[in-house]
Every structure is written in structure tokens, then in C-alpha cells.
Amino acid sequence: MKNFIVITALAVTAFTIAACNNAGSSSAAHSAKDSSGAAQSAEKSGPQEAVKSLLGSYLQLKNALAEDNSNDAAVAGKAIAAGFTGFDKAALTTAQKKSFEDIAGDAKEMAEHIGESAGKLPHQREHFEMLSQDMADLVKLFGAGQTLYVDHCPMYNNNKGANWLSETKAIKNPYLGTKMSTCGSIKEEIK
Q: What does pTM read for this prediction?
């Protein structure tokens, strides 16, 4: 719960900073060159900070599922849904907005299902599989600000397999949980 509060505080701070940057870049007191520089700065840091916040909640969700903790997974799912709802797209380019909207619609829906499904680990894990792909796409679009690993569980979903993002090289399988916590391998490293 402390981590959730810290992540929420960081998200509020990031959104406040982004709002201040946006207000400063539209001020008539700035020259066109200064406004352009501020907009580029907001474009580079604003979305990345929001993505970091979403990623923090996603990693909490992944770790909760790995520990078979459905209630903590639900809390993290709600935080992810709220993060997508509050994502400030003002600093995004037209192409980034389109890509973000393609990702966000599905990701928010998956996170909402997870948030509403406390006590239903199998159902949460089904939605986590789809959310994980959306989060990987989001990280590849904006960057993560940290090294991440795309891990793969070959046994999930009747041996069809599934991927997830992890902040560590150590495998903590969110699909099989405590039954087979180390099942899986690193498929890709994202820097």
C-alpha cells in the first residue's frame, strides 16, 4: 500500500510538472524559439513521466500476480486505469497520439477488468496477458526510463505461452504464481 501511495504521489507530481511546463510554453512572454524549446522539453519528459507512473503500477500488478495476491492486483489495475484516463496527450505529436490512443483504449479496459476482479486470479491473469502486450508497446513508443525485460512463460494458456514486462532479470512468473514462480525465460531486453 505504501508503494501505491508513493506511485500515486509521483504521478500527481509528474502531471503537475507537465501542466506547469505546458502553461509556461504557451505564455506570450516567451519568444517563439523559447516556446518551441519548452514544447520539445515537455514532449520528451511529460509522456515519459506518465509512462513511468503507469509502468510502476504495472510492475506492482505483475508482482502481486506472481505472489497470487488478487487484492493487490486489483488495486494496481485500478491505478493503471486511472493513469490511462489522466494521461496528458497535449505534448504528443499527431503520430504519437494515434499510437497512444490505439494502445490506451485496450489497456485501460484490461486494467479496469483486473481492478474489478479481486478474488479471481485466473480472470485477472487473462487480462494481464493482453495488458502486458499493450504496456510493451507503450514502453517501446515512449521509453521506460529504465531497463526492462520481456519475459516469456511457455506453459501459460495450455502451452500457448505469454509474455510480461519485468524490472529484474530474476523470473517471477505472474501467470503461474507461486506454483511455478521461476518458470520462464527472458525473451528481450528493453533499454
A: 0.76
